[in-house]
Amino acid sequence: MSEHTQNKEHGSKPGGPGGGPRPMGFGPGGPGMMPGQKPKQFKASFKRLAGYLKPFRLQLGLVFMAAILSTVFSIFSPKILGKATDELFNGLMDKMKGVPGAAIDFEAIAFILALLAGLYVISAIFAFFQQYLMAGVAQKVVYRLRNEVNEKLGKLPLKLFDARSNGDILSRVVNDVDNISNTLQQSLTQIITSVVTLVGVIIMMLTISPLLTLILVLTLPLSFIVIALVAKRSQRYFKSQQAELGELNGHVEEMYTGHTIVKAFGRERHSIKQFESINDRLYQSSWRAQFISGIIMPLMNLIGNIGYVFICVVGGLLVTRQTITVGDIQAFIQYARQFTMPITQTANIANIIQSTIASAERVFELLDEEEESPEPVRPVVLSSPRGDVEFRGVQFGYNEDALLIENMNIAVKSGQTVAIVGPTGAGKTTLVNLLMRFYEVNGGTITIDGQNIREMERGSLRSLFGMVLQDTWLFNGTIKDNIAYGRASAAESEVIEAAIAAHADHFIRTMPDGYDTMLNEEASNISQGQKQLLTIARAILADPSILILDEATSSVDTRTELQIQQAMQHLMAGRTSFVIAHRLSTIRDADLILVMDKGSVIEQGTHESLLAAGGFYADLYNSQFAATNKLTAG
Amino acid sequence: MLKLFRFLRPYRIVIVLVMALILMQSLAELYLPTLMADIVNEGVVKGDTSYIWRMGGYMMGVTIIGTVVSVLASLYASRIASGFGRIVRGKVFSHVESFSMHEFDKIGTASLITRTTNDINQVQQVLMMMLRLMVMAPMMCIGGIIMALYKDAELTLVLVVALPVLAGAIWLIVSKGLPYFKAIQKKLDRLNLVLREGLTGIRVIRSFNRIEHEKVRFEDANRDLMNNAIKVNQIMAVMMPVMMLIMNISTIAIVWFGGWRIDSGAMGVGDLMAFIQYAMQIMFSLLMFSMMFVMVPRASASAVRIGEVLELQPSVTDTAETALSSRGSSGVVEFHNVSFNYPGAERPALSDISFSALPGEVTAIIGGTGSGKSTLFHLIPRFFDAAGGSVQIGGTDVTKWPQDQLRQYISLVPQKAVLFSGSVQDNIRYGKEDATDEEIRQAAETAQALEFIETMPEGFQSVLAQGGTNLSGGQKQRLSIARALVRKPRIYLFDDSFSALDYKTDAKLRAALKEVTSDAAVLIVAQRVSTVMDADRIIVLDEGRIAGVGTHRELMEDSEVYREIVASQLSEEESA
Description:
Number of helices of chain B: 19
CATH superfamily of the largest domain in chain A: P-loop containing nucleotide triphosphate hydrolases
Oligomer: heterodimer
Keywords (chain A): ATP-binding, Cell membrane, Membrane, Nucleotide-binding, Transmembrane, Transmembrane helix, Transport
InterPro entries (chain A): AAA+_ATPase, ABC1_TM_dom, ABC1_TM_sf, ABC_transporter-like_ATP-bd, ABC_transporter-like_CS, P-loop_NTPase, Type_1_exporter
Region (Disordered) (chain A): 1-34
Largest interface: A-B, 181 and 180 residues
Radius of gyration of chain A: 37 Å
CATH topology of the domain at 325-409 and 490-576 in chain B: Rossmann fold
Strand content of chain B: 5-15%
Domain ABC transmembrane type-1 (chain A): 62-355
GO molecular function (chain A): ABC-type oligopeptide transporter activity; ATP binding; ATP hydrolysis activity
């Protein structure tokens, strides 16, 4: 990433006037040597990206105009500067030849230089305007793009988020969009200035001397060959460098996160040995990649200098034959210098554009994902929800052809408790997914108070539920804001009331800023148990009619666990509750037990009926709880 | 930054060579305009064609030498920068491998990873830039000034005015823009944070119907970033045109004053042409140098972070007195009045802990979070060293053991199963490098892992995705138990290792374990009473102190804390 930005920073120098030195070869990547990702559908994606620029066509028009004008004005200047040199030279020659009254015409020179100064100022002003305007356009475009993606994320079904890693989505919204932003900011105008410079310079050179121009143009294919050769080889090394780097990063990540194990099994030396061998390979491909891409500049320089030498020699000869003037040579040298720059830039730009379109494509891919099914036109609203939940012939599978639930029928009355029991990873989240309509059922219906949940708006459906799961989610904000997340309009006294009910008030008040304490990014300034208490407070404040609770409270100390238990009981009173149960008491007292294994509901019933059935649940109970019971009782 | 450059020592001769090469390259570059001046002054003015050809030949020669020299410079510079990266990376990695948990906690695993990878890359890249740019720019600058002085000392006065103006302008713009440059990273991080929160909390956000609220939060962060980015680019928009303008005006001044000098016969027209080119080279080198102001701070932050890692000394080291004498010692684990403090903590994490765990027995440690169970465990393989008292294995203080020998005796099964990329077999073999296939199979069988391994498409050869993401939590835990079993150690440490197993597997595993661990000391840390009830000895920890030792039955009678724990996990009637 940084390599690209660097290159672009240097590349953004406009094909400046003045006999500047050639561009120096620096920057670790060299120009555009990074193997860019190739877009799959260049044209379509390009068009679509261009569509985002459309609202700014007026500004863009101005930017292009400014870019062209700035370049054109700067193109004229070497020729005019040459005129000044001519005046000097002619005056001098006349003096040497002893022409009477011969002198350098300073008045004429002053006039020329004043004209030149004017041109420079105008060119600078336009250059400024071009970049200044573009800053607004480019940043606003990516601003819109980011918002659009984010908004889209809000409409995508959870299926997508479960299937993709967060890192992948993050990288599309941040890195890829950033890549687009850089290109818009710098490369877009660069294309224009490069092309205008190239054309303008060729025209100017032709007006000076077609012969010299021909000589210079002949060096062109040479440059292309060099660029092509070097680019091809360096891409190979860059690719392998990238691969080794990936492997190295992977190794480091694995070894550091597994540090305890590495140490416990005394494998440090082995791990270092492995690291060294990757490090060695990285070194080999890295210096080669750097070197190969680093020589492109000296080689381009060589070609440029060969042109330079020829111009000096041939130009010198032409001057002696009076075909051109000394000023012309000077101007021509300057043009020649400006000539090679846009060529290297274009090679660079082609690469950048490719990677930009590839980035845009990844962003568009996300934008094109299928959204959740549309909300019903006339949604049902439950004015005073009771919390009766019914599953009728529900079929569900994350994969259409592998149904996990084939025909599920349950009826839960308002205020009842459903215990969900089964080994970890048995797919208890599946029920949450279905109830809250994070996933759609494949068949059958789920109703609340007799209404099909598909006929409600998702938002109003979900507001019926309160959820306290084991992996708590809190955000970077104050404790108060986190509790009030369930009901943004809650007054401070209500927040405190909820916290008291959740047994969280005490610990909150021991924090330095009480309810205004900021939770840090990882929310690591409070313990796991405290986090859970906060999420319970959040659910209490939201006052839902149906609850989904996860009883598992591992990594919580016993006292906090007791508090959590009490808080949960308080929360469950009078509400329909689905409890992912671990406590025998909860399970036994439940109105309905759902036994889940490998993602599907295999048994359901009350404690007594399930024991009598002698199935999976009975097995489970006998192997775990019964033993416990006997021992503790004894 | 400079401190890190001590690792360049092996390259010091090569660095001198690179500098010499770049000096030669700059000289070659600067010599061309001089030769061109000669062509104009001598050849063109006098109409001497053969002179022009001869000078042209010289120029060609100089160009080729310049190219060869700069290719060589590039070669050595790449080798130095990459070599430097390799050395630092190797040093950092092996240093980190010697860290105890202490140092890991101090810096943080994620940060250590970034420091070993990205930060070193960043420094390596900047070194590459420095080798080319930082060396090239001053040489071009000095060389240019020398040539300019040599061509016409008085005309150099133009530069005396132009250079400070240019430098001043650069300084002004950079210093104005720098706060914005720095802010941009922060605002990008903020946007990242909001987005990440939105992704990890997606179920909660949707269940509370707060999508709209999250959208606004994102838009705020996004707008903030946009405004800053616009500002940065607007400042940059001033930069280039101003630079170019200063340079161009200088050119005009040179032509004007040079004209007078030519008029008075003090210099030739060719000299003026060459002079303009020198002036440009000097100013461009200044501009290039200014790029370093943007680059170096970025890298120096990285360098500081790397330096911190290297300076941090591992707190657990082998002492000189560690005798290598063969200890046919048994696996008796003894704690004598052990205490332990985390740095900066107000209260000790452990105090006055004394107990012993004998081979052939199961010793369980129970207590809530923060009671010090895991800390106690970590003292045994010396992930930390005790602050007071003594932890002994086989009658010898653990600090007297060489670390690798000590750990040979121990198998640890951590709370969160950690697996490495590689095959199932590789992962089990991690416990014992020379384990036979049969041993691996047996370990897997005992750990109740054989069944699911055999259903995998390639059995023991099946490759795990990074960290075993293609396995369930329980499967990972069973593999990590198999890895511990294959080692056949004297001491087993199970750190709440059965939590991800379902009840049936748990029971089967325990039965199988009993057989193979019959002559080893088994220590189990647990949260749940049901896990520890069968242990020969239960140690109840409460806030870093031992609150009771005994069997389940004994503790139920005389340990208040234990009863409280039992009560919190089982309902009244069950524990009564």
